Amino acid sequence: MTRYAHVTGWGMAVPDRILTNEELSQMVDTSDEWIVSRTGIRERRIVGKGESTASLAAEAGARALVRTDLSAGDLDLVIVATASPEHLFPATACLVQDSLGATNAGAFDLSAACTGFIIGLNMAAQAIITGSIDNALVIGSETLSRLVDWEDRGTCVLFGDGAGAFVLQASERPGGVLSAVMRSDGSGGSILSVPAGGSRYPTTHETVSKKMHTIHMNGRDVFRFATRVMAGATREVVERAGLELDEIELVIPHQANKRIIESAARGLGLPMDRFILNIDRYGNTSSASIPIAACEALERGRIRAGDHLVLVAFGGGLTWGALAMQWVAPEAKVPPSRRRRRAVTAFFARVRSVVRRIIRIIEGLIWGASSHTDD
Ligand code: COA
Asked: What CATH number is given to the structural domain containing 221?
């Protein structure tokens, strides 16, 4: 039997707080006119107290799951693509796994900056197609506002927070993920990076005072790189899928800069109405930008069963990639019974997590005491 990997659920979560260009112009020397004309961004979402990469990811994941006939316990794999993880470790994906109650799933974070969601989707799809797993949850989640230098006008106007998730399921029905292109060029790593906090530059007073824990970027170099790779990766992935460009109903590009997307459209000879654009409302949410754009496109009925889609991204690393898929999921509304199930599942996942933590404390006390006794 030939196996295929289909997207059967999708969900997004963004913080309520909107930060407008107008507000930014009171924080740094910039203007709404400059930001809109250079990037297409009008506003972005910013996390508040108590929100984090894991909380956004878990919310998006729960919303995606509720659209499917799966429960969290049916998931074999949880991947969180992120450039702003909750911690260096444990992985954000493990916190999401616990929060959802995905008790049978392996979980790991994927670090490929803004290309992470495409790579995660391809990894999960290949694991499904080869028969290694049946069900996966792939999430792109970011709180880049926590990594931005709010005094650097060259970067702070660009980024925003949010999360988007896809559930992938095995099927015998042809379609789903058709092909992927994954590329990297580490020689360009320094043009977009958060230099400190890892093993190269561990945290010291000096790294903090030099702001080495915030995003450093050479905007012009990134712009040149992005316009070079977007069209090429799209062409290659379409060819690998055995399709022609004019068979692609919709391209869902990484939302980094409207001018970069327009340049890719020109390079491909495709009209802009074939590209999903929502950068005006969210800015660059890195690995979350493609699933968020996909969720909004689905909500607005822009993606229909049978459509051929290309997802294409570039980012720090340097990394870039594209994925072609045929959409087969029905445009189903979530029945109220599933919403109730989500609330019940979330409640039991929380209870389970608390119980497991208590058991761990008790085990620690018992084993700790007995090892002292051994001494
Ligand atoms: N407001 C006002 N002026 C700004 C500004 C801001 N927020 N940010 C930079 N400027 C200034 C610069 O200081 C420069 O001034 P100067 O000419 O006096 O030195 C001028 O605007 C032009 O800067 P430049 O960097 O050439 O602008 P640009 O047209 O390349 O646009 C970016 C800058 C960052 C918008 C653009 O380079 C870009 O989008 N790059 C890609 C970034 C990206 O996508 N990163 C994430 C990848 S996943």
From this structure: 3.40.47.10
